[in-house]
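Backbone-to-sequence.
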């Protein structure tokens, strides 16, 4: 059998790269029993790397002339502090560090999209070829960008929802929070409608926060795959298009990666800041 016969079609190539290393195949639209191991691994990995970076910055901080690493971290800290100061009116001893952690964590997860799309599939095939891994590894699904997985982004959004509820109760008290649920925005006489609107508002904030990040990163990942397919065309147009389009999109994607991390951080601050406000 020739190599051409073994080569996947364009659709098979994309479907394979968009598949997850999961506990089992998903047959339903919603199945909470499935765990995407690749999303979990890379999310935790980026969280550890981000925490290590901040820990090293704090450990090596000096009151003298800062080095480049310390200066870069200080710029980030000052940026987040200024944003949190203008949005959250209250105690920010936890909120500002939380926002900084969210920004760095999401930015690192987004930045994994800069890795070549065929890096891990090529690595798996190499390991199989060397005889150090089973043949099934060559066809294993693996997605490296956690924020291109809706499960990952909704999971982070649920954490933000928990913070919104926590600060709503902490700032207003349990009684004040429950009273606000049934009295805002139309007054206590419209309590059932107020409660429905409040529940919808919390759900909309959570879903939109996760969907916005997922949509942007999934689209970016899909474009990288389509550009990679151009390189498979044995023509001048295919090779030139692959190099030119790939370079342009990679440069533009740098802005998207950090912009989406900034937007996610800002919306987190806005939602937590709204929990501090009384209606």
């Amino acid at each position: 059998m020739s190599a051409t016969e073994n080569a996947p079609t364009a659709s098979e190539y994309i479907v394979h790269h968009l598949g997850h290393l999961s506990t089992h195949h998903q047959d339903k639209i919603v199945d909470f029993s499935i765990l995407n191991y690749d999303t979990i691994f890379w999310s935790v990995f980026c969280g550890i790397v981000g925490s290590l970076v901040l820990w090293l910055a704090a450990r090596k901080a000096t009151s003298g002339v800062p080095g480049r690493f310390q200066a870069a971290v200080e710029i980030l800290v000052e940026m987040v502090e200024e944003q949190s100061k203008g949005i959250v009116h209250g105690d920010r001893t936890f909120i500002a560090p939380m926002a900084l952690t969210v920004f760095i964590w999401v930015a690192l997860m987004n930045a994994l999209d800069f890795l070549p799309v065929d890096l891990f599939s090529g690595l798996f095939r190499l390991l199989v070829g060397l005889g150090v891994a089973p043949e099934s590894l060559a066809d294993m699904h693996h997605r490296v960008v956690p924020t291109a997985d809706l499960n990952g982004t909704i999971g982070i959004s649920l954490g933000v929802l928990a913070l919104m509820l926590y600060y709503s109760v902490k700032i207003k008290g349990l009684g004040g929070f429950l009273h606000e649920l049934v009295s805002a925005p139309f007054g206590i006489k419209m309590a059932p409608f107020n409660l429905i609107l409040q529940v919808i508002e919390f759900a909309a904030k959570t879903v939109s926060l996760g969907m916005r990040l997922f949509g942007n990163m999934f689209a970016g990942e899909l474009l990288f795959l389509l550009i990679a397919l151009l390189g498979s065309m044995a023509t001048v147009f295919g090779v030139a298009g692959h190099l030119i389009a790939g370079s342009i999109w990679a440069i533009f994607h740098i802005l998207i990666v950090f912009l989406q991390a900034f937007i996610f951080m800002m919306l987190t601050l806005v939602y937590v800041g709204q929990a501090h406000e009384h209606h």
